[in-house]
Amino acid sequence: MSDEELKEEQDPGKDDQEETSDGDEDLHTEWIGEEEWVEDEDDAALAEEEEVPPFIDNGDGTISDTHNQLMWAKTDSFPEFGYGITWFEAQDYCETVNEKKYAGFDDWRLCSTEEAKAMFSFSKSNTDKDGAEIHIDSLFEPGGGHNTWTYVEKPDYHQYAEKFSYVTGNEVWEHKDNEYSHVRLVRDMSEREEWEPEWRKDSRKFQR
Fold first, then answer.
1. Are 55 and 66 in contact (CB under 8 A)?
2. Over the stretch 66-84, which tens digit does the pLDDT of each residue have?
3. pLDDT tens digits for 87-114?
4. What element of type H or E holds 198?
5. Are 129 and 84 in contact (CB under 8 A)?
6. Contacts (Cβ under 8 Å, ≥6 apart) of 203
7. Distance between CA atoms of 46 and 132, rounded to whole angstroms?
8. Interatomic CA distance for residues 61 and 74, integer angstroms
9. What residues contact residue 171 under an 8 Å CB cut-off, 6+ apart?
10. pTM above threshold 0.85
């Protein structure tokens, strides 16, 4: 028996173990690199999002929600009426605002429940018409109502619509004839619109 055959008999499979070890090392290295790349991408996206404030006062009676591409009227229906309104009156109010082209737009509407929730945060503080605390951004005009009608109607019970509270952060089904409610109007921002206030646009130079 030769020396090579004797060595192989004493330590069988050594070459296979070395090949397997090298393969595991390559696989482990590739996995670490991929994980690090994903983390860097997420950190960059988070940093970019934090650079843009969630709410921007446009200086024309509107507030832009930059994270959800929405534009809100800075005030709700209370300054217009001085009292609560029904769901039907909220629809009429929306139509009147669109006829007047408030802030230059005629596509204002009632919000959805999820859009109303996007305004709410316990970390935010504002005051309603009674001086009580509501949890919306301080950029919104104080002295409004503490809730808003939504356009969401109750299935099979269309005499009810959903209302959202800016005190508790909860939604509730309310009869459409309820007169102790208010409405905050919203519109969708198109891709061409930008979140900068009007006064900032005036300082831009025309591009050729």
1. yes
2. 999 999 999 999 999 999 9
3. 999 999 999 999 999 999 999 999 999 9
4. helix 198-201
5. no
6. none
7. 34
8. 5
9. 113, 116, 117, 150, 162, 163, 164, 165
10. no
